[in-house]
Every structure is written in C-alpha cells, then in structure tokens.
Amino acid sequence: MSSQKGNVSRSRPQKHQNTFSFRNDKFDKSVQTKKINAKLHDGVCQRCKEVLEWRVKYSKYKPLSKPKKCVKCLQKTVKDSYHIMCRPCAYELEVCAKCGKKEEIVIPWRFPLLLSLECSRELMATTATIYWAQVILSPQPSK
Ligand SMILES: [Zn+2]
Ligand SMILES: [Zn+2]
C-alpha cells in the first residue's frame, strides 16, 4: 500500500500554503472555492467525473495556475486540473479529457458551455469589452 493512507492525524487542510511563485490574480480563496464548487465537470467519463467531484468535495481540487500541455496537440491548452487533453482534442477524438480513454462522456463538451463557464481571464476580458461596447453604443440605457 502507498503511504497515502497511513496518515491518520486530523490536521485540517487550512494551513497556510506556501506559494513560491508570485500570483497575479486578485481572486481570494473564497471566490476560488466558489468557482471550483460551481465547476461543471464536462468532457470527462463517469469515473473521472466522480474523481473530480470527490476532489472538490474534500477540498483536494487544485485549480491550475497556468495552462498545461495537452498530450495530443502538445499546446499549452489544458485549462482544467487533472485533465491530460485540451477540450477541442478530447472532443474531436471523442475521448475523456482526463484519462484519455474512449469512454462515454457524461456531460459532452460544447462550445457555448465553454464560453459561459470557462474562467479564462482573456475570455472574460473579451466578453466584458463586448458587453461594455454594447452598453456604450446602445442609445437607450438598459435599466
Ligand atoms: Zn489539444
Ligand atoms: Zn475518464
């Protein structure tokens, strides 16, 4: 057995984490947690979905601080923790984005879903720009 199960001490996982790299984001932990909790585990198989949900439930889900390399297209396009493949690749190959196996995908990934749920800052910025452009350009203030 691995040493993982050996530790029975009840220390809470609230210890201050040492972040050695400077993080530029202004999101505080509660916002981060909310985001994680609201996360929809799409594009993965049942087993992987359960693993991800388990991680979220037990606060073991660590969001990526920067995109990871996709095993398929070799671009840094993986934005979801524990995924090995980026969404477009997994979608195209019809495989689970986490384990890479050809399993039935519980919540199929869709582009509009990505647009509304992905918390990519660039995307948010773009969306915000479009939104404000519409607000500014619209003759009537929408209230
Ligand atoms: Zn890819
Ligand atoms: Zn899977």
Automatic annotation (TrEMBL):
Q: Which domain of life is it from?
A: Eukaryota
> Which PANTHER family does the UniProt entry name for this protein?
CHROMOSOME 9 OPEN READING FRAME 85, ZGC:101016
* Name of this chain's protein: Uncharacterized protein C9orf85
